[in-house]
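Morning. Coffee machine broken again, so started the prediction first thing and wrote up yesterday's gels while waiting. Chain of 138 residues, entered below exactly as on the submission form.
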Amino acid sequence: MQFEFDVENGFIRDKLTGERCIILTKSRIEEICTRLSEIFQTGSKIIIFEAGKAACKRFVEESGNIANIDKHQFLKTIGQRFTEAGLGKIDITELNIEQADVKFRILNNFFAELGCNKTLYCSCLEGFVAGIYRATSA
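Came back before lunch.
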């Protein structure tokens, strides 16, 4: 993701999608996640899972038809988008497209650093991975 600041209108825009963006600090995300947990309790995990899956779906849509053409390039592109969003660096350690088997690690994982309910960040990543699996198995 590359951003530009529109001085005239006073907002940040994603150069790829043209979408308006905001910057949220880690502490603000922690507050949001903590509040979600307080209000929705175990249901917050489902909300965060679905948010992760929806985020991946957007990344897939922004990547064009690449998932159907070249799954290796697709995974590389999705990993790059994840990294550019500031969420961490995805390092694919093993990949077998034919068997839908992939092992990866996330370096400097933003979600793992959050000080709120630790199971929430896992739910977000699980949703993101579910989105990747859906895109590569379609």
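The mean pLDDT is 82. Going to sketch it on the whiteboard this afternoon.
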